[in-house]
Structure formats: structure tokens, C-alpha cells
Sequence to fold (338 residues):
Amino acid sequence: MPGRNALTPWLPALLGRLRLWLGLAALLVGAAAAGAPPKELTIAVANTPLSLPLFVADSQGYFADEGLKPRLQECVGGFRCMQLMFAGEADLATAADAPIMFNSFDRADFAVLGTFVVAHDDTKLIARKSAGITKPQHLTGKRVGAVLRSSSHYFVDAYLLMNGVEPKSVTALDLAPGALVGALASGQVDAIAVWEPQGWQAMHRLKDDATLLPSRGVYNETFNLVASHRVIGTRDAELAKVLRAIERATRFIRARPAEAQALLRARLKLDQDTVDWLWQGMRFRLSLDQGLLRTLESEARWALREGHVPQGKVPNFLKYVHTAPLRAVNESAVGLPQ
Fold:
């Protein structure tokens, strides 16, 4: 058996070969990682006309142009979409400002990446004439169906206060989004606060018994792309690609509205009368600015005042936005400090 001195001349050569093998292995691992496709992103998308930029980006190949193939998982309303994200079933979600505000009182593991539409009358208050409701003041003592912790919930109180009706004089019933129209038609409730396209469906189902109460100016709703902290920071490059595809989609909608409307009809199985009904109230543009923060702060003060959230203080909503991906796409679209 050779002694230690006999092996000594061979050690430099052995170490050199070992370093060479380790270097080659590292190169091979790096090349494999670089060539591997990125992990698929799942986006929980509310099945509402407000999600149109996501539908356009998908159908027009804008995601594919960015090297992405996200899975769009449709859900009923932004509140449900955010629940799917929190449960780990989606990385991103589309949601209105109210679900973002409500969740900010419970958790801090998400952030808004951008607003892609502002709707001036997406949420509506529809009542039954047979319940004796033809104007806002008739809601006193009535049952109003809404989706609690959503834009529907906020809209009801804002509507009542703006029209001089004490919210506590109205019985608010928490209903699932898909149950609102049926509850109104069956007489379970006297009115509903509902977003599109369920508003249009309610008007057509009740026909002459439906009253659309005037609500323009009550609430300008934002619809936003929200991300889980699982992907924020670690996958910002992919998030920027998602936003770039959405920005292209908003430009498409503004430049080619007829084609965008045709896509919306096909995606949500709507007719042109429905699309015409809701189209004028939507403004598609990608941004992240003070307007969103002001809306969230106003809603948070309302939620605290009315006891809809645990007593505390208004959250610092700057902590609930992540500007880096949108800055990489369009610096001028960001009106917030870094």
C-alpha cells in the first residue's frame, strides 16, 4: 500500500481535474436552468367586463409575445379571486379596490401592481317596483342584497348616505355574487347592489318590475392587478411582462373598440345590447397613482366608522403597492414614490 509521500506528487493533478469537473458541472446546471421554461403564472380573473384587458392580452397573443403562457382561472368577483390567491391556487388576482381595502386589515402578504380600468357606473342599485321602490328614499326599512367585503358592500352605504338615507335603517343581506339576481327576482330581497353583467341580467329578468336607481357619481371603481408576496420581488421580470401585455391590451381596446367589444361578447357570452349598456362607463388605462390610494383610504375610514373592520387605524396603503414592475414598463404610468 503506497505511503502518504507516494501520493503527494499526484495531488495537484487530482485537484486540477476535480476543479475542472466541478466547473463543467456548474456550467451544465446553469445552462439547464437558463433553458428551462419559467414556472407558469396563474391569474385569478374575475368574470366581469372589467377584466377585458386580460381577455384581450390572452386572445391577441400579447402574453405569448412576452414569452408567457399564464393560466387564467376565472372566478366570480374580485373578493373570490383574492381568496384563491391567498389559498395558493393563483399567483395574481384581479380585484376592485374594496376587496383590497378589506383584506389590508387582515393581512400584509399582497400588493397592487397596477390599475387597468376605472368604471364610473359598473356597480348599480336595482330594486323591485313591486316592493314599493322607485327612488332612493324608498329603501328605508327594505332588504338590500349585497356581497359583503366587496365593492357592492361599499357602494350600498355610499349610495344611501349620498341620498340622505341612514344605512342602519336598511337591512343588508350578505349574498354570494351569483345569487343576487335570483334573490331579487324571488322576492328574498327588495333591491340589490350588483356589478355587471349581473346588473343587465337583473334588469332583463325582472323586466317591467325592475327599477334602476340613479347612481352616477356615487362611486368610481378601480379594477386592479394584485400579486401575492410569493412572486413579488423574486419574479418581478415576469410581472413586468404581464403588465406590458396588459398595457398593449388597453391600447388595443381604446384604438379598436369594435373588435374589443366582439371579444367581450364572445368571452362572457353577452349580446351587443349588454355591451352597449356598460361600455361608456369604463376607461381602460394602465396606471398606479394617488387616486387609488385616496379611494382605499376613503373606504378604510368608512369601514372603521361603520364597524365593518376591527377598530384600529387606516392602513398605510403605500405598503400595499409594488411599483417596480410597472416602472420597468412605463415610468410615466406611476404617480407614487418608490
Notes: Residues 124-213 form a domain with the D-Maltodextrin-Binding Protein; domain 2 fold (CATH 3.40.190.10).
